[in-house]
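Section 3.1: Structural characterization of target chains.
Under the original work plan, the team committed to producing a structural model for every single-chain target entering the pipeline before any wet-lab resources were allocated. The record below documents one such target. The sequence was received from the expression subgroup and is listed exactly as submitted; it comprises 427 residues.
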Amino acid sequence: MRVPSPSKRRGGGALSRVLRRPRVAIVAVVVAGALLWIVAFTSLELTTVSSASALVSRRSNAASSADLEHGDYVSVASPPVSPCPTCPDCSTTSGTGPRTPHPDAVTFVLVATMRPNDGPRAVALLASMRRFLDPKASAVHALVVIVPNAELTWWRLAAQALRGGGEHGEVFFEVRVVAEDDVLPTPTARLRVAAPKANHRESRGAGYRVQMLLKLAVAANHVHTDFYVTLDCDVLLAKPLKLGTLVRAGKALTQGEMGGAHVSRWMSHSLDAFFGDSPGASKGKEGADRCGVQTLKQTIGVTPAVLSTRVALAAIARLQTLGGDVGWDERLFRTLDEGLDWTEYGMYAAGACLEGMQEEVHYRDPKLRLYDATLQEDGSRFRDPAAMSRAFDADAPVFLVLQSIGGSDAAGAAEAVWPHLSMSDGE
């Protein structure tokens, strides 16, 4: 959610000298990434979703708080449904037909790109999933990978190359590749046009705003568990993930805090988005008084986060009521030019508060954290082997974040995690 600064760290030795040459660096990163993907994903079977329907808009318009309470999402108590309803011929991991999710299982949602500093980082996530997930009782029901429309063909080729199984291990959850325009109700090209000032002003354009909305919109048609985990390319598992760790008795673990210099604006503007199109729109509105900044910033953190499918759908339904003749996502993009600095987690927190659902769907565990916020911010600690060893301790947080804003680069991050994720005895 924060605009990253240029990477402060460079790889060492001969590799560093090679990577200083731009063209060589790009080729090296892509080749290395492809090879590592094959190693990491040998045991996973990928399927793709490529329909171009605006499913999220249709689902969002039909949703309401009452409907959600009666199962307007795929509940673990519901009869088995196709894990990929938009493509009936999708294969399943069991080979015997659709599976009903385990009540404590989650869906991993990875919003990915193939940019040189992003795509290669996803290798660590894939390797960590193979390293730390139990194939006999997986805490992950499915992995949904959301990619830019222009990259879909590349990812389809990768899916074909990485189709696994057989002697290298059991395929124990499904993996689906989905284009951004199959998740959002409005084409991403139209979203960017809807906010010309913001698209020009923000250093990364509107791309990262699209990624924010994807993390909410995915709940409408691509998540078939009660909870899902939002991931970026720079996130990986740091310890074995077992059933009951992230979801217990119908509640999901939350980081329970959001820090940073801009958090007050993010939270207040996200709440405003439920009442109008400009800052201060929530002032004096019914229900908004109990959802102030101090309340909201203690309810959710940043990526990675475990989100409730019900809350995401309820938030979308509320946002759509103000959309008029445009989708809720396009309306939010238009508000950027009115000064609303919303975020996906701010709107999730506000939606949960307005619906009175926060305590119903989340719990906090003082002994267990989703991620180490300090390590996430200070990329220099990735160069310290002792700090990295502690990051993979049994008592460490569930996830590790290798974001470039903290000072790590793709090559340096891979070197830092290799001793902890490698499954080869010969290296």
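The chain is about 35% helix and 10% strand.
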